Please model this.
Amino acid sequence: MVDRELLTQVVYAINKAVGRFEMPSPLFHTSNVGTVVAVGIAITAVAGVAVAVAVGSDILFNDGRSIKTHWSRKRKIHSLKSQEWHDSFDSEDGCLSNYGEAVVNKVRWGGIDPEIRAEVWPFLLGLYDLRSTAAERKEKKLSKREEYENLRNKCQSVRLLLSDERGDRGNLEEPLEFEKPTLKESQSPDNAVLVDSSEDAPLEDSQEIDKRSESCDGKGSQDNSDGISAVEQKTEDVSGVINSWQLESGSPALENFTTWQRIIRLDAVRMNAEWVPYSPTQANVSAEEAFKLARAASLEDDEHLEPCRQHHAARLVEILEAYSIYDPETGYCQGMSDLLSPFVALMDEDFEAFWCFTYFMRTARHNFRTDEVGIRKQLDKVSEILKIADSPLYNHLVKINSEDCTFVYRMVVVLLRRELSFEQTLCLWEVIWADWAALKMGFGVGKKPKRSRKKRAPPSNDLLLFTIAAAVHKKRKIIFERCRGMDDLLKECNAMAGHLDIWELLDDARELIRSVNSKTL
Amino acid sequence: MMRTVPIKVVLLGDGRVGKTSLVLRYVNATFSEQQTPTIQASYLTKRLNFNGAMVTLAIWDTAGQERFHALGPIYYRDADAALLVYDITDKDSFDRVKSWVKELRKMAPKDIILAIAGNKCDMNSQVDLKDSERYAASIGSSHFNTSAKSNIGIEETFLDIARRVLEQKKALAENVPASTQRKTMVIIDEPPPPPPPSKCCS
Model:
């Protein structure tokens, strides 16, 4: 005999499943497959064989237990583990086997075990070349530490100069010069090399990837990577950062640096403390040490903060200030503290956090341009992805004058940091960087996917944008039913915070990449 | 069936003057000393019963940094009211209010209602209160001293905005044919959530 309540649940599950079939979903074929499975389970339950039914995203057992799962695409996540990572290095020269192909691919699909994140990130971001030997990395570490110290010295000089500006200026032996920020980075030669090579690429498609793969294969092994040389070039120029513009009272540069200094401090002390459990050494910093650092960073006013937050804030200030000197065109913009905070939390050394952040900012800096060209380009890409992949949704956005996708602005600017938990953000970011590294090295690019991996999408420079498009797509039903303008859309996007599953979302994003690729071929 | 008047309010002002804190105090009755900086904007709503009229305040809380300034028009272009917030301990933030007013005069709807809030009034002021009140009067704006931390003046500020917008809408409805009105009434047929306890119903 079939329990009446169970039967009701089964009918509900079937209705829900059928409902999903009716909903136009050109992208997520797998969700339909999952639905079939759900119906299967439901029907089996009716027959009295199975003891569970699928309702929504839970498996309900008839004894009341439930297991959280998804309708479909549930896969086990295998992160890169410490043993595997350390075994990947050659015992003699310290090179990663196959230039880290296995490692990068592992991260692309499973992220990194928290224990070794701080070790792996510099490789993914390009601070350490995936082809480097242990000796080369040691050398690089030394030089980068020194460069960072030089930058910090520059910050101190500028700070002193500014305090003199405010007080007695007569103490200055010679005026410090400062690079004039320009709006058009295309006019600035050293910034031109910083521009991500994908900047002008339209949507990620196979042809584009093939082209990129060729270029990677072509110059990959000789060139010590365009990214690194670009940033190194930029660093060498740092001594010249301060070279063409007189730092005078009332000049725009002075105003800018003063403004940045002020906002950096305001923002640093109000970062949330989500990072604390991930950083035991910093969480247990002594009050004395925290205060010393805070005082050095001119944060005396914020003594009400707990020592660990005070310490974190002081490190943020020092690194962000150094960055604003390093990249005066970007300077500091709200949101950048969100991007830096995880590096500071995970890395005990400031110079390492600074350089990883700087490499990361090679792409992210475009989003902070005052003329909004960078962010607009990104939003246009999200719009284009939706247009190609889900035209009914796109048409609805057109109808409510929101096809410019301004409603995902925040998601793009801080890479979903505000929508995801700390841990999930780190997973997303490292997967994105692994995609960048794979593209740069030509891993998984231009090859026909193996039969068993036919669902695995190629790496993309725009994985973030596909992930955001996937998050929007996930809300399509609500968007159709409830959203009548930007207000409603923004509200829905804000409401995503805390409700996203990054691995599910990444699977959806990969699905989108495949879908867009197949439609634009 | 309940007739609800939607009122769109946009908060503008320099970074860390307390825009988000004002809104969160008003809508959620919460306050955090370390409120994270707003990126882009957030959107919150509050329903209130204003002398028998149901009002939904749609509050847009925007990012403060000058860099996000260009996003402003998206939020104020069809706003009924703008609440300009400054920090009474920071004179520069009051200058920023003045620059927002200039921009709104040029770019925003002509009949936008303005209100100015001098926030952090639980602290020592660096701005001459008389000056700011005089300035507010000169631009036809109201001025309130607020503190999100101590919950001072916030309810009054939003109620003043709601009252003036409603009066303006009423005046418009009396003088202008309905079809040419900028805003129209929205009929909501879902039962409204229980209105939060509010002093505004008196």
The helical segments of chain B are 19-28, 72-76, 91-107, 129-138, 154-175. The longest strand of chain B covers residues 2-13. The first helix of chain B runs from residue 19 to 28. DSSP finds five helices and seven strands in chain B.
